Amino acid sequence: MAWLPLLLATMLGHGSGAPAALKTCGQSLYDATEYICHADNFLCRITAGEPLSVCGGACYSTFQYACSPGGTLALLPAATAAPFTLAVSNPSLPALHGQPVSAAGGLRWAVGGPTASYCPASVVGPDACPPGNATAVLLAADGRAAMAVVVPGGQEVYLAPDWSVGYTQAHSAGMPAGSVVGGFGAYVGGGFVNLNGDGWGWVACAPPPGAADDARWRLVGRNATSAAALAGCAPVNLKVVPFNSSSVGAWQYT
Ligand SMILES: *[C@@H]1O[C@H](CO)[C@@H](O)[C@H](O)[C@H]1NC(C)=O
Ligand SMILES: *[C@@H]1O[C@H](CO)[C@@H](O)[C@H](O)[C@H]1NC(C)=O
Ligand SMILES: *[C@@H]1O[C@H](CO)[C@@H](O)[C@H](O)[C@H]1NC(C)=O
After folding, report:
1. DSSP secondary structure string, the chain?
2. Residue 2 pLDDT level (bands cut at 50, 70, 90)
3. Burial bucket for residue 212 (CB in 10 Å: 0-12, 13-18, 19+)
4. pLDDT at site 130
5. Which atom of ligand 1 is least distant from the CA of 85?
6. Deepest in the core among 5, 11, 125, 136, taking most CB within 10 A?
7. Is the minimum distance from the CB of 163 to ligand 2 under 6 angstroms?
């Protein structure tokens, strides 16, 4: 008779504190905060605030794929031809949505401006200095990414050992032991994705308690192992935005 109290508890639980109201999608019940119902019969998950689209019976993210009129899914074109800037996307989080991804100082990517950059104007002449006020990124065909800079040797983008996004200091290829280079994708009209993470995507993590008032949210790659530890961070997509000013964003980012 162990089931009886359990059943009662379930029944009593119904009136008060009931779970979010479910909606119907064809024959299924679903929670509209987690799923979207397409054509009243096909459920797709909402990830990072993006209700996934449907194509020929599969759910997909418009940050990576497009659906042909015939219903075939194809990767968007790789954004390897020109530098781009990035914008944080999660429509359910207005404080973060639309904010630029910035080189924030400390050789790290963060949410929101301004961009931290440097140009040795007295050495190279002010005319050689790009504005340096936007954070531009380049993707190579082999999946490595770099900051779009003038400085010889460039500045490579990597995942630090905690999978926060960093970039190498000018004139140095050094990075912390255990960092991950490459494994990135960027798509024209789509997003900048972390293919190392087996589809777990990016999160934005709030500054730790006691951080400076102007501390910004950090961008971190998530994977199956770290998902639980990063549960307090906000899932986001990173939208690729065409960068029109010139071929570089800065002399170097700091
Ligand atoms: C950077 O500065 C240039 C002019 O120097 C301006 O046209 C442009 O809008 C600025 N870009 C950003 C992202 O602030
Ligand atoms: C997942 O991310 C963590 C950092 O949060 C990293 O230490 C670990 O190596 C990553 N796991 C895999 C399988 O790459
Ligand atoms: C960059 O160019 C694209 C296409 O030419 C245009 O849609 C977009 O508004 C431009 N962005 C900026 C910041 O000027």
Report:
1. -THHHHHHHHHHHHHSSPPPPPEEETTEEE-TTTEEEETTTEEEEEETTEEPEEETTEEE-TTTEEE-TTS-EEEPPB--SS-EEEEEE-TT-TTTTTPBEEE-STTBEEESS---EE--HHHH-GGG-----S--EEE-TTS-EEE-B-STT-EEEEE-TT-BEEEPPTT-----TT-EE--EEEBTTSBEEEGGGTT--EEEEPPPTT--TT--PEEEE--TTTTTTTTTSEEEEEEEEE--S-S-SBSEE-
2. very low
3. exposed
4. 94
5. 13
6. 136
7. yes
Q: Which ligand does the CA of 240 lie closest to?
A: 3
> What average pLDDT is seen over the chain?
90
Quote the CA–CA distance of 171 and 235 in Å, as a whole number: 33
Residue reference for tokens 């950059």: 117
Is the pTM higher than 0.85? yes
Tens of pLDDT, residue by residue over 80-130, are 999 999 999 999 999 999 999 999 989 999 999 899 999 999 999 999 999
CA of 188 relative to ligand 1 center, distance in Å: 22
CA distance 85 to 101: 7
Amino acid letter, residue 31 = D
Residue 134: CB within 6 Å of ligand 1?
A: yes
The model's pLDDT over 137-162, given as tens digits with 9 standing for 90+, comes to 999 999 999 999 999 999 999 999 99
Q: What is the rounded distance in angstroms from the CA atom of residue 55 to the CA atom of residue 169?
A: 43
